[in-house]
Amino acid sequence: MNDMTDHEFLMASRFAALATRDSGDWMDVRRRARVTHRRRVTLVLVAMIVAVVLATPAFGIGGRLLNLIEGTPAPPDVQTSFATSSEGFKQMLDHAQEAGEKLNDQYSPVIASDARGLFAIESAGGPIYLWAAPTEDGRQCWLIQEGTDFASGRPFGLTSCDPSDPATAMSPEPLWSAERPSVEIVHVRLYDDAITRVEVELDGAPTAALPLVAGHAFGTVPKDERILAIVGRNADGDEVARFKMGDPG
Predict the structure, then answer these.
(1) Stated pTM of the model
(2) DSSP symbol at 39
(3) CA-based R_g, the chain, Å
(4) Pick from 167, 135, 159, 150: nearest CA to 243
């Protein structure tokens, strides 16, 4: 205080006392104002809620919303309805899971970067390609490309994959496409290593042999030729498997 005169010290003391007293009174005023404001807001909200409840339209029984049934146990028929719905949802989820497992089995994850072209055949309607790619679990998926989408430029055609446990020595896929109308495409997936030759028996025409690459036989026959059967033979010419057209097996 040596730097202050007696007059300056007196003035400072008075302002300090004034500031302390006014600050306390002002804080009290502000607290009371906030309390009053909260009370007014609460009253306004209560009034609004009451107005909404009273203005609620009828619920089909000629009355207004009379009370909230929160906490009231549901009657047995309502509980039964919930239980029935729950069982329906469970069955739906079970079916979805089963479908998902079948789809995963039929279309397992493909290693797209390892996709390779196996065959390219020229037809009057345009080229036909067979592409194949390995799956992460050691199987194969393939695409028989019959055309190209003009908008996206992406190939389209028949796509399929190996089953997890093939039940046959070979699986023929004869098909006809409007994109390549002059021929019938014949694809045969081979699961028996003993098969080294695949033949297509035709009605009234010589038997045609299909080339084999990486477990696939692929080729075309003229559209007006009728396929009778597809036969798989071993190196000695013995029949290993036969698929008759129209035979479900």
Answers:
(1) 0.57
(2) H
(3) 42
(4) 167
